[in-house]
Amino acid sequence: MAIEIDLNRVYMPSEDVVARVIENEIIIVPLVSGIGDMEDEIYTLNETGRSIWEKLDGKKKLKDVVSELASEFDSPLQKIEKDVIGFVQEVIKRKMLVGK
Amino acid sequence: MGKDHYVIKQYTRKSNPWQDKPNFLNHLSIELTERCNNDCIHCCINLHEDDVEAKKKELSTDQIKKVFSEAASMGCLKVTVTGGEPLLRNDFAELYLFARKLGLKVLLFTNATLINHDLVELFKQIPPLVEIEVTVYGMEKDSYEGVTRKKGSFEQAWRGIQLLQENKIPFVVKSVALPHNRKDLTRFKKWAAGIPWMAGQEPESYKYFGLRLRRDNFKKNALIQELRARPEEIAEESVRTKETYHKALKQFSSAFFKPTADKLFSCHGGLNGGCVDAYGNFQLCILLRHPDTVYDLKQGSLREGYETYLPRIRKIKATNPAYLNRCGACFLSNICQQCPGMSWIEHGDLDTPVDYICAITHTQARYLGIIGDTEKAWEVCDWEARISKFENQIKVNPVDIHNGSTQCRRDK
Ligand code: SF4
Ligand code: SF4
Predict the structure, then answer these.
(1) What is the ipTM of this complex?
(2) CB contact under 8 A, B103 and A18
(3) Assessment of whether the complete model's pTM goes beyond 0.80
């Protein structure tokens, strides 16, 4: 079942993972157990995911993230919102992001 | 848009996606101490656990944290934490947590004697992300302590191992092949096969023992030399795994079999990682501690050591005529373990050939049928023909290759 995402809420990286930047890529390394389905995995984000993740600073509401991205990218607002929600759902499911 | 589309799993166990980027530090190994609570008969590094002088010289907690931070900023994904026995340091847990919070995987090498409930809890909550490597010196008290020369170490180590097992902390095991534990080998392998994280792999059991890395104990060196397997025994090991050995060699034979003249560093040391000793010296590899080849991190930065200093060391050429006439002209040099690190521990320089290594390589080459019984590889001039013949053979038949061989008459 899809996780309910509230655009008025602030989301931030979970303290259960460490996000690093290597060669311009965001690398997410599990810190606590139970993040990956195997113990030695690390994760990267695709380009869309990376643009969204960089804005999840624990201060901005998700709807502001959407409008910031809309001003930066030449893409319809609806599509951006869909991506943001899809991304947030996925990283919450993977315990990499938490709501504030 | 597909499900799980934004997050990509990266399997970094064997390699990682960034390792070929220039100046990327793939891996760092750090010795937290040279001290150990065991006194293994074959050990090339251990100092007494209470060695006050050694303790005083060791990097402080903050200095080690700085090394970890720098490594992470240079893209490092995994640090190997070794020793001596790294768990002897009472700041181990703090350092471990620090490294993990930087997003580093931590590969711990340990004898398991100091694994306790607190550590197990820590590993359970914050997993190292790579299996702990435990060296097991024997399956029985007499054999184990025959190696470690420490009363009670058998019980301590097995309690540690049991704690790891019970708490499902991923670990793998390895051993050393010594006369004292020879009788345990079959039992050890059988037991190791039941460890889930071994994933069906046979545990490594080291037969070749390096001399003291600091060239500090010549009496111990004599003992280590006595304990080493004979070159024939090492070659026999290759016979046991003949098919794999042939396959591996054939894959790279034409590219790898060639003399390397005055080139000293044919290895990968310092190319995508390096080693830090307990006192903050940054080295190309674990062996090479020649004072002219190490970079003092207390006076500089890991980045400078890695990007500027190590590449300079790798450019050093051999000058010793004994090396140039032998290894420099030897077509086996790229499959031979001869290297500046080996020369350092055996002879105290960078380029004196190590006879023991030479004998091992010659025995293996004889087994493969590339050289004859009395031939010296550096005197063989038709090596290219031999290699192409070797490559074309599905099954090696030594007799075929030996027939019609010629030897170079080199002017000495
Ligand atoms: S346990 Fe390891 S470091 Fe300690 S003496 Fe034995 S081989 Fe050396
Ligand atoms: S086999 Fe002997 S001569 Fe050849 S590279 Fe090795 S040590 Fe040198």
Answers:
(1) 0.94
(2) yes
(3) yes
